[in-house]
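Troubleshooting: if your tokenizer reports a length mismatch, compare against these two reference records.
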Amino acid sequence: MPETPDSRARLSAVMLTHGQWEFTARCLQSLRDDLAAGMELVLVDNGSTDGTPERARWEVDAAARLTILENHVNLGFPAGCNLGIAKAQGEFLLFLNNDLVLPRGGIARLLSHLESPPGAGLVGPRSNRVAGEQCLPSVDYDQESLEGYEECAARLASANAGRASESARLIGFCLLVRRAVIERIGGFDPIFGIGNFEDDDFCLRARLAGFRLLRAEDVLVHHFGGRTFKAAGIDRDRAVLANWEVFKEKWGLPRDRTVQRFYAQPDFDHLAFVPEDHRLPLEPQPPPLEERRAFNFLLHPRAGDPGWEQAVRDYLGAFTADDDVALLVRLGPDDGGDRILDRLAAIVAAGRPDGGASRDPTPRLVTLDLPLRPGEEMGLYRLAGAVLGGASSLPPGPKRLAEIAGCPILESGGVGALRAAAARRED
């Protein structure tokens, strides 16, 4: 495809930032020609404290199509990307980490790969530092100063002009996606929190929906790597392992499957794309609940973790049926639902006078044991005013949803703590 203003004007780049302005500036500099050619840039800032949004306004030419979305906290890569998608206008969307440098003409070459093969929906480049098959075994340039980088990228582009290979997965550090893919499968799943495996999840849903994934053999993108995790003070190795558990739970992989064994296409051959299960709305909505109240506590009990029982007792002791509150008890498929429901009924009965013989009403308590649609789980945490039971009692996925939704987790319960939480929401 020729490198023309018309082609790049159909493209929106979504870049996430969290500090590390030095790297963001270098990435923006490498995008100048593409911005001048009409590419839109949506910069989603996840709580930078180094003046990144204002500096970006100065760095980018005033005539460029620039939108900056500022979040006061780090929403993570998936939720941040979804905000950018909702704002972007392009027919194609290019998701970028901020610690990249792109070669001259690289974006035009990426676009060309999506325009020719039928069914191609996603394409990613080769790189010096990236997981999986996109990583080159060696590169002939200085990876700190970038001396010789453009020449190395040009040699790769010449030797592999127009070549692209089928791929089973692409990494989200630099990922070009057709808008049609988003319309079909939705956005990234915020259950993956700060990041890791949200791109695997996205690619898997895209493949199930019938889109092809391509690796551009003629584009070399330099990746400094891991800068956002470093800026946030996050142990990346631990984050990878934690989200591997979330990915396995979501896609039904064996619990003893290690990240070293990873996954392969046969793990998912039995699956078909089901929009109700696999399409992630950009703006999550809570499930329809007629029982919601002015203040809603959320509890995610698990068999073998007795902490949730005290949380229920505290709730029953803190409120009456006259209070405009509800306790939403979320039961997952592997949480021991029947045993928990039996135990829950016994706790409620014991909380009444005469050991349950009395029919005095109790504060509203709702059990949610039905499967929720994609996005409704996140919406549930946005609906809740507080999560009971403490962070240690939450599975990894729900814990991340609570953090991203800004839903406080009450580490220490007690009647007073619950009443205080409801009172703060009313204020």
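Reference record two:
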Amino acid sequence: FGQRIGYSYRFEDGIRDGVIVPLVYDGRVIPQKVSSDRIDNYLKGILAPLTEPQKEDMRKLRELESDGKIDFSTLPVLEPHVREILLKWISDAMENPAGTARTEEGRYYTLDMSRKEERCVVHCEDGSFTMPKLAIVFQEEG
């Protein structure tokens, strides 16, 4: 446009003329009330040692692992409680944009959804259901 208008109007010209003004950010603090009791209770739940039934559940879940993962398309018949834990782990990982989460005993895992277009049947003591072929892949410990 400089040739058509006759000259170019530069940024410095705008500052000098007062056409360009400083942009001032006025940060705001949104008052939030956080209960320390609520945080303490949450942390107690995370940091508390596992109960004996929880340890038994984790043992059963570890038995389902093969090569550091639980492949839903190759599972044996599941107890209802074990199924609930596995579905919770899927849900937890899906809530995270990175597809990762942590088990009750603190193990980190990623949800492998590379075969989600395929289907598999998971058999349980109280019935069966069809779901995408997913796998829970545990990160190496240590």
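Descriptive notes for reference record two:
- Strands lie at 69-71, 100-102, 108-124, 127-138.
- The CA atoms of residues 2 and 9 lie 8 Å apart.
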